[in-house]
Specification:
The structure is a homodimer of 505-residue chains. Chain A contains 14 helices and 25 strands. With 505 residues, chain A is an alpha+beta fold. Chain A has three domains: 283 residues, Bira Bifunctional Protein, Domain 2 (BirA Bifunctional Protein, domain 2); 100 residues, Anticodon-binding domain (Rossmann fold); 77 residues, 2-Layer Sandwich (Translation Initiation Factor IF3). Chain A has a five-stranded mixed β-barrel with strand order 9-10-11-25-22. A five-stranded mixed sheet of chain A has the order 16-15-17-18-19, with helices on both faces. In chain A, a hairpin with a 6-residue loop joins β23 and β24. In chain A, α3 packs across α7. About 2% of the residues of chain A have low confidence. At the A-B interface, β2, α3, β3, α5 and β5 of A face β2, α3, β3, α5 and β5 of B.
Chain lengths: 505, 505
């Protein structure tokens, strides 16, 4: 029986990741990129279903941690920005007074913001009195309302989230899920009585990110971003980056501690139990369709996607074999499918009148974790054959198929985690030099597509030297703890801090 | 025990519907209208949850009828409208040649469309080469892609839907859920090989609307809209209207038969089994957050909302009574809640440390169908008290509480249907005259807030007379069948057709 060749699939080898990725998102029917606005893809049913399952992971974490789901308007009137601008001015003044280095570059961010949004200027044929922009994220619309909602300490903490479309006027090259202009976006915003409350929230966010990335079988690097890469108005920003197979890092989640900086700009105060008016402390936590981009990029292979069972639109495909020769096959396939569905699995029967090879081929591209074949011979032996998308086949007794299939799904997840960890361990290396020399003699030691971990404790201008000399971007300070002090690669001062540099998406 | 008075709730009496409706949507915490753009409300958790449950009803119908969920971009480049404009021109030419009266007023619709959309003219500081508009509905973006997807008869039927935000630059007075500028919108779009296929789709749409409205306990009037109220490019439009308590009708669902008119404009053709190129036939089916508006408006009473159990965010509230006097109460409440949850019910325990009267009051406003009280006395008698939001209390044995609660939820639904049907029967009346006289002598016979059913078979100018003389709008021809012929109220010609006139939202 002839099997469609890889060339026929049109999938480039995954070793050529920069060709493979943009091809597979369309070949596997996740999106259609032919919509006439670049960076605004059409979500096809398979892609949308995977994305909604990722949303379900986020919703379930939000429920577990008592966040409530809201939905705020897409359009923001320009004059609401006055409050944000006042934040920027105040922080600028503070910076000039030498108060806190974390607010550096805020003025640039502010003007950058206006450059990055889409502006609605007309309603019908009328020019709007106040132009509106499409939300790039929702601090401004949300905090305007929060200041109406929060009155007393009894209203705190306020833990909110929404899953919405956001927009960015992107001028760089667009890439499905990774850099798009209409973004499928998750954002949680919380308000607390004091800094402790916000501190705990940041820890809760970190834990949620760990749990979600574990479900997606994605290892990540968690860093505290350098000051100039901190979200405007934030005290600090932490981010989780996934190392993609080409060695570029993809920021998939960020969480920001705002202290009371935004709250002061938005008059977000409350009355404490003693009747004193106090400023709230705030945090935000953001994720997006980049999570799907990371899943696609990390787990797929030369034959197509491999979907982690937690978010696979179909976890199990059941394929009747030679059903025309035995009338019991169809009934058995339906019964098995029903048993699996009743256990909460996402199951699809492929009844198409095409050869089994074609079915395998199609579901392989889509990355369905398990394929079950059931034919007359299997029925008489009381067994069925289960193929794992990660490789291998297992004979499973029909009687305890459901529990065995749960085990096999777990083993697919475990295998994906192992492979991902192995890949990342090859792509993240210690920096090859103890100290970066003044000349460029070391340049041949920097490998393409590698993320470097290095001891670094320099200031901003040291970081600038580091980035310039390596041609890489500073991700920030690793969240992990290190025992040994090592000399900083720029200053030579001993430090326990480790930082990462990479080519970022 | 003092009970908060109605005045304290701030709910106007429902008999003053035009004050009651805008108040209750905020008092029951469905939305916050204080966002600084009129007609763009903030969805609060309770309202969003109810809306998502209505979406679930739509999704479940879509699954049952093999529609697939997509998500298309929000922004549409103006030049995509060229195709739509060519549709308008061709139909205009056809009309001038006297081909089909159904395309009347299309040119007006076209210019009306441009008046009703929001225009994005700038990305950052750059003026866009091609302006884009925010979708008011998605024919143009979807059909541009459909023409890439449909090649042969094997690709048909193509049955798609999406649930998205759409936008309308609304100049009339806005009302939560009923007339808004950012619309939570459902739209299904289908492509068929021939007119028969589209005909069957229209029947399927009608059946879905019936099923969804039954779940929402909403009676409706289904009409074929008059030609001038037909969607641009449609052969005909049918709509379901709900009669609100003030006698105004609210269009909650429409379905359109396009024949091949849109397909020709969008080059949407396929190759049939004999190799001939043919034009596709199309339909669309739309609903929106107006469904929630109808639920709120129809079922609520002087004390707040009454949510139909199918879409109630909480179907059952369990209230511990005197839990401080008996440590078994909390455990019993939790156990009961778990038993109900395991049966698939949406249950919330109200553990708040406030008086039972306050709890009743709060959940009454939110319209939770059933409230269960469980205290020490109930535990010893093995029973609990269930209060129905539609009135009355029932003592239920704890042993078979779950099945009894399912019955009680059904009885709440039945009661809501009965009440709604009774109300509508009072608001829809036969027209009081056999024939509308030339003078205005009959005007005192037209009651305010009444929908009239009347025999009418006149032409467009007769309809204009009818609308002008009654001050009401023609909803169109009733979908029901009538045995007896009666004289048309304008022409006097005998007709079996019945039409409705009303004040429309």
């Amino acid at each position: 029986m002839s099997r469609p060749s890889k060339a026929k699939r049109g999938i480039p080898p995954k070793s050529d990741f920069n060709s493979w990725y943009p091809s597979i998102v369309e070949i596997a029917d996740l999106v259609d990129k032919r919509y006439p606005i670049k960076g605004m893809d059409v979500w096809k049913p398979y892609g949308l279903s995977a994305m909604c399952l990722i949303d379900s992971l986020a919703r379930s974490e939000m429920r577990r941690t008592n966040h409530q789901e809201y939905r705020f308007p897409l359009l923001v009137p320009e004059d609401l920005l006055d409050k944000e601008n006042s934040l920027v001015s105040r922080l600028k003044a503070a910076r000039e007074a030498g108060v806190d280095p974390s607010e550096l570059r805020l003025d640039e961010e502010e003007s950058g913001f206006k450059k990055e949004v889409y502006w609605v200027t007309h309603g019908g044929e009328n020019e709007l009195e106040v132009p509106m922009f499409l939300r790039p994220t929702s601090e401004t619309p949300m905090y305007s309302m929060f200041s109406l909602w929060v009155r007393s300490h009894a209203d705190l903490p306020l833990k909110t989230f929404q899953i919405v479309n956001t927009f960015r006027y992107e001028t760089k090259q667009t890439r499905s899920f990774i850099r798009v202009r209409e973004i499928h976006f998750f954002e949680a915003h919380t308000v607390h009585a004091d800094q402790n409350g916000a501190d705990s929230q940041i820890e809760e966010d970190a834990e949620m990110v760990r749990r979600i990335l574990r479900e997606l079988c994605l290892p990540s690097i968690v860093c505290k971003r350098p000051v100039w890469d901190t979200f405007p108005g934030a005290w600090y920003t932490k981010a989780a980056d996934v190392v993609m197979p080409n060695g570029r890092t993809l920021q998939v989640a960020t969480y920001h501690h705002y202290r009371d900086q935004w709250a002061e700009a938005f008059d977000l105060t409350y009355e404490d139990s003693e009747g004193n008016t106090k400023s709230c402390h705030q945090t935000t936590f953001g994720m997006s369709e980049r999570l799907l981009g990371a899943v696609v990029g990390m787990h797929g292979d030369d034959n197509g996607l491999i979907m982690p069972p937690s978010v696979a639109p179909f976890q199990v495909i059941v394929m009747p074999i030679a059903a025309h020769t035995d009338p019991n096959v169809t009934a058995a396939v339906e019964e098995l499918s029903e048993r699996l569905t009743n256990r909460g699995l996402r199951v699809e029967i492929d009844f198409r009148d095409v050869r089994p090879g074609v079915k395998h081929f199609d579901w392989e591209i889509k990355g369905v974790p398990l394929r079950v074949e059931l034919g007359p011979r299997d029925l008489s032996s009381g067994k069925c054959i289960v193929s794992l998308r990660t490789g291998g086949k297992v004979e499973v007794s029909l009687d305890d198929a459901p529990s065995k299939i749960f085990e096999l799904l777990d083993s697919v997840s475990d295998e994906l985690r192992l492979r991902a960890e192995k890949l990342v361990s090859q792509l993240v290396k210690p920096f090859p030099l103890e100290k970066i020399p003044h000349d460029d003699s070391f340049e041949d030691k920097i490998e393409d597509g590698i993320v470097y971990e290095l001891p670094f404790s320099g200031n901003d201008s040291d970081a600038e030297i580091l980035e310039k000399k390596t041609g890489l971007t500073l991700l920030g300070e690793s969240d992990r703890e290190f025992d040994s002090d090592k000399p900083c690669v720029i200053t030579g001062n001993l430090t326990s801090k480790r930082q990462f540099v990479s080519k970022m998406y």
